[in-house]
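Subject: for your reference before the review

Hello V.,

The reviewers asked for a structural picture of the protein, and I figured it would be easier to keep everything in one thread rather than splitting it across files. Below is the amino acid sequence we used in the manuscript, unchanged from the supplementary table.
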Amino acid sequence: MKGVLFALVLLSAAPALAAAPSSVMGKHDSNAPINISADKFVADSNSKTGTWTGNVIVIQGDMRMRANSVRLNVVGKENKPDKIFANGGVVVDSPNSGTVTGDNGVYDVVARTVTMTGKVVLTKDKDVMRGSPLTVNLETGVATLGGNKSPGVSASQNGGRVQGIFTPPPSSNAPQQSPN
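And here is what came back from the structure prediction:
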């Protein structure tokens, strides 16, 4: 079960990795205990799934994920995690990298990729990025934020461009006003 829970936490960590790869990878403790709480849990041995539903909260160290439901698929005789699906109002908070929100998230364990879809928003302090989908390759550390472009429709027609707002820190070289 420890491997299953570790894979679940990777789902929550990956979007934050996209926001700030070096800070999360350097500071997040992936060996910390994992706490999952939900209104309900159902294990289905026939379909090899485990599903947490209703106000799902996953916490590991300083990383926190919330979603309406989280489903884990396992494969093989060892019941190793294959894919993890987080659905409905997925929110990942990390003090190191900020907050990532999206409608849904999928962690493909074999491909080591995480994809957040829907209205994806990454925020850190006053900086904000929007787009969809957000795909993070955990092997390479490369994150790609798409422009939510519908097939056959230009990005400008459907507002499907990636958007970012970045606020520079106050300059220490700015002239100081002296009190009179």
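For the response letter, the relevant points are probably these. Helices lie at 2-19, 21-27, 155-158. The chain has a mean pLDDT of 76.

Happy to draft the paragraph if you're swamped.

O.
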